[in-house]
Structures are given as structure tokens and as C-alpha cells.
Write a structure and sequence with these properties.
The protein contains six helices and no strands. It is mainly alpha-helical.
Length: 115
């Protein structure tokens, strides 16, 4: 999928969209740089690269790590929309883009902790 360089481009393109989103942007009041780095580490691992996130922070346990953030269906959809826009903007091949969105959809909805 392009390795480290592509993952960095995804993260760097994705988070301005997240911050601009009126629903999920406010969920990041304390700055975004640390979140971006963690996302880079996680996505690298999640898509088959080295276990960068686990080496630094232990098992991802992403649902537990997101329990303090109110995530419902609208937030999950907004997050996925920002990611879809990002992958389209970066002009990743259609097949890769759809595979990535399919893989990310499960966790996005799994993180939900409110109705």
C-alpha cells in the first residue's frame, strides 16, 4: 500500500478533516500531534507492518482506549467519511481504498460506546 510514506500521508491528510468536522473535531480539544503519531503507529501495525504501536504502548485494546470518548453511530460515520475523503484525495487505487475502508469499518463501529 506504500509503506511508511503512505501511512504518514494518510494521517497528515486525515486529521485536518477530522478537526474541521463539527461532530468529531471537538473530541480533540488538547491538540492533535500526539494523536497523529499514535494513529501512524497503529495504522502501520493494523495494515500488516511492524508492530510499532504494540512495541511502544502494549496491546492496542483500541475499544478500551476510546471508552472516555463519546462515540455513537454518527461519530463512527463521520470518522469513516473523513477517512474515505482522505483516501480519495490521495488517489489511492480503488481496490486498495475499498479494502482499507472495509478493514477500518469494523473497528470504527466497534468503538461505539453510546447509542
Amino acid at each position: 500500500m506504500g509503506g511508511e510514506q503512505t501511512i504518514r500521508r494518510i494521517v497528515d491528510t486525515f486529521y485536518p478533516k477530522v478537526l474541521a468536522d463539527p461532530l468529531i473535531g471537538p473530541l480533540f480539544p488538547d491538540g492533535i500531534e500526539e494523536v497523529k503519531e499514535k494513529q501512524f503507529l497503529f495504522l502501520s501495525q493494523f495494515f500488516g507492518g511492524p508492530p510499532l504501536y504494540s512495541e511502544r504502548f502494549g496491546h492496542p485494546m483500541m475499544r478500551a482506549r476510546h471508552m472516555h470518548v463519546p462515540i455513537g453511530i454518527e461519530e463512527a460515520r463521520a470518522w469513516l467519511s473523513c477517512m474515505r475523503q482522505t483516501l480519495e484525495e490521495l488517489e489511492l487505487p480503488d481496490e486498495l481504498r475499498e479494502a482499507m475502508m472495509d478493514r477500518l469499518s469494523g473497528p470504527a463501529y466497534h468503538f461505539m460506546n453510546r447509542t
